Amino acid sequence: MTPNSLHRFARPSLIALTALALLTSAARAEVDKKSTNAPAKSAAAPAAKDGQPYPFRGTVASTDQKAKTVTLSGKEHPRVLHIASSSLLDKAGKPATLADVAAGDYAHGRVEKRDGNEFIVKGSFGPKPEKKATDAKPADAPAPKVKKTQPQ
Q1: Among 62, 116, 141, 152, which is least packed, fewest CB within 10 Å?
Q2: What CA–CA distance (Å, rounded) separates 132 from 4?
Q3: Three-state DSSP class for 111?
Q4: How far apart are CA 122 and CA 109, in angstroms?
Q5: What is the pLDDT of residues 37-60, one digit of tens each?
């Protein structure tokens, strides 16, 4: 090889390797920056911002008509959900009011956090829905017959 042909090969290779090293280090720095700035998630509290709806479910412990609240029973402490004028409530699939909600009802729906309080966006109350039956086959059912075909 002549020195001239070596320069023609080495220079583009060196430029390509330098560019690759810079891109790799920039990508790694971006990943490190994202992982260190991510807020720690708490398992105890919902990680929703104010105004972002998130789901709720539980059993109604009590209601307060004057304060317009529904209290759900909890393992550690009760959870108080507020009713706003824009809250949509239903009981057993029909439109309802707070007066229709009773202690012992199963409650589920979506709430949003405003000013540190949880407000029901949409709430459904009534008996707890039964689990849907899966398409599981009984253990004593015969297996379906499979036709065997021979290659031709």
Answers
A1: 152
A2: 77
A3: strand
A4: 5
A5: 555 443 444 455 667 899 999 999
